[in-house]
Amino acid sequence: MSTRTFASIAILAVAAGLGISAWFAMKPASDDPFAQCRASAVSGGAGAIGGPFEVVREDGVTVTDAEIFTKPTILYFGYTFCPDVCPLDSMRNADAQRLLEERGYDVQTAFISIDPNRDTVEVVAEFTDLFHDNMIGFTGSPEQISTASKAFKTYFKAHTDEDPEYYLVDHSTFSYLVMPDTGFAEFFRREDSPETMAERTACFIDAAK
């Protein structure tokens, strides 16, 4: 792939990220019980992000959001054919999970594919195992993935018209902290380090006790 193509993809990804960022503001809400933990806030409140959906777990079992978020979870939407962003973000998320586990926190990471046509359960399982033994991968029907994506206000667009086999997918790149009892809690940007993610996640967990 040419440098020009990569540059075009990067521009599209940035543009998509800026569009999704309209949902987010940088000042925590004053009535937020987790305000001391947040570095950001969501337009409309935390309840504007998340909602019911179902996807197919990497072992082939269809599960609901309630069955996924049984412990604090760092969630990411991506795809396994992604040439650079998704692997880097997934490794960063896995590193944050390891840091939290070293501190005694029981957490998990989850990866939902936005490319269900290519990402079978076997492919997703193999991909997530590269980063952490306990990173859970999910895929599903296009309708299931669309519902999950809309719940978390993510963006994606597959360019199957350019290459029906080796196409790329533009997508937003936020990672989300989801708590088992309160749902969506926080989002992380690409520039957030594993240490920053671990520290903020630990704050939410401690505050929820």
Topology of helices and strands:
Blueprint: H1 3-20, E1 24-25, E2 41-42, E3 54-57, E4 62-64, H2 65-68, E5 73-78, H3 85-102, E6 108-113, H4 121-129, E7 135-139, H5 142-151, E8 156-158, E9 169-171, E10 175-179, E11 183-188, H6 194-208
Helix pairs in contact: 3-6
Organism: Celeribacter arenosi
Family: Belongs to the SCO1/2 family.
Protein name: SCO family protein
Structure description:
This is SCO family protein. Belongs to the SCO1/2 family. InterPro entries: SCO1/SenC, Thioredoxin-like_sf. Pfam families: SCO1-SenC (PF02630). The chain is α+β, with helices and mostly antiparallel strands and 209 residues long. It has a single domain (3-208), classed as 3-Layer(aba) Sandwich (Glutaredoxin). Helices cover 35% and strands 22% of the residues. The chain is built from six helices and eleven strands. A seven-stranded mixed sheet has the order 4-3-7-6-5-10-11. A two-stranded antiparallel sheet has the order 1-2. Helix 3 (85-102) links the parallel strand 5 and strand 6. Helix 3 packs across helix 6 (194-208). The radius of gyration is 16 Å and the shape is globular. The termini are far apart. Mean pLDDT is 88; it is low at 1-19 and 25-29.
